[in-house]
Amino acid sequence: MSTPSASRATPEQDLLRRALGVLTELAPAAIELGEIFRAAGHELALVGGPVRDAFLGRASNDLDFATSATPDETQALLARWGDAHWDIGKEFGTIGARRYAQAGGDDVAGGSDDVIVEVTTYRTDKYDPASRKPLVEFGETLDGDLSRRDFTVNAMAVRLPDLTFVDPFNGLTDLARRVLRTPIAPERSFDDDPLRMLRAARFAGQLAFHVEQGTLAAIVAMAPRIEIVSAERVQAELSKLLLSANPRGGLEVLVDTGLADHTLPELPALQLEIDEHHRHKDVYQHSLTVLEQAIAQETGPGGPVPAPDLVLRLAALLHDVGKPATRRFESGGGVSFHHHEVVGAKLVAKRLRALKYEKQIIKDVSRLVELHLRFHGYGEGAWTDSAVRRYVTDAGPLLERLHRLTRADSTTRNKRKAQRLADAYTDLENRIAVLREQEEIDSIRPDLDGTQIMAILGIPPGREVGEAYKHLLGLRMERGPLGQDTAREELLAWWAARQA
């Protein structure tokens, strides 16, 4: 790759200059691997995301290569180059390897400076109309392999070891224009692999690119085809989109093209028309804004909610999905959504299960949706100690996320109202801090445990012990720490009243 002169450089030349600097950093390991493959009579090229990211000025230690070698031949060559290799993707033509950044064995394995490569035999993918899994056919040429890539910006390559730039579909021009376009006719590309339609939305958010009109039209026409793709693959793309720098742009592509109707239908359902005068918030746009505001409140690595946080982002996006099902038109012309947080929590759990999210994520997101109105239920007056204790206890380990979700949920344009809500929540957080200093508010328990309850009342394990424990917990919530003597008196009084 040659460097263009600095004067009158085109956007493409600027990108080439930037890529040269990045690829120079990658060159030692990549060139050595290229020399190994060439000596064995095979082609090797750096492809896909690493090439695109080099033009964007971003280096990666995870490198993707395409080769003319068969998977067996690749495996043998990578065994010579790397410190470890694996064949978990061999069925699809992919062999992986890792070279440790330093010599020394297991104590340094897996370091952030290790070089990880995946080498895939030239191939073409397509779906059988009746199958959710792609069929793999090995190809013979680099250009043919690049033609099966999802978008032109991912269909560029650098041949190794001589660093020759290959761009048969003008991906560099599209990269400079920040455009997503398929290398071949979009209808054919999306028919071969419908997941590429979701990738268009993901890259729109991840890279802040826009989708070319013909490609966008094809997605609209073929959106139902996404249903052939497995839930796990859909979930992976959705998660990558939500964890990107600008998920709003990608989510708008999902909704505008109709893809969301088949993957996340609760989101477009929020585009309900409240009334003919449009006096109420657009719930869909409100949800996108809440997502953006929640992202802005994520913290650095050492903070309580490190960015990017998938649970917080899912909860922010989906917190109001119960509104369409609970909408009621009131006699005075208003609209209500009573208990939409409870209905929404159930809908969220159902959708995330369908998308095969792990159980803890489903539990945490649905719980945040259920709790997102709890602050407003107490009004803007002074919180009692009891109310603060219950708020913290109900949120449990999700408290820091709930803080951010609740703050993000204020999208009013009335500055006075917004400031009043913000001040009220700041007061709540201050009250929590004060109680934390006074008592163990984050892990509230009764002053007596189950064993002590049984000993005092002279009863065996059973339902009555649980009821006694619940009674003492309620007292602890209302009155704070009682001390064991007072708790014993309260327990005996409760038991006597129960026996009367």
TrEMBL record:
PANTHER family: CCA TRNA NUCLEOTIDYLTRANSFERASE 1, MITOCHONDRIAL (PTHR46173). This is CCA tRNA nucleotidyltransferase. GO terms for molecular function: CCA tRNA nucleotidyltransferase activity; metal ion binding; nucleotide binding; tRNA binding. GO terms for biological process: tRNA processing. Its EC number is 2.7.7.72. InterPro entries: Bact_CCA-adding_enz_type3_sf, HD/PDEase_dom, HD_domain, HDIG_dom, NT_sf, PolA_pol_head_dom, PolyA_RNA-bd, tRNA_adenylyltransferase. SMART domains: HDc (SM00471). Residues 279-423 form the HD/PDEase domain. It comes from Antribacter soli. Keywords: Magnesium, Metal-binding, Nucleotide-binding, Nucleotidyltransferase, Transferase, tRNA processing.
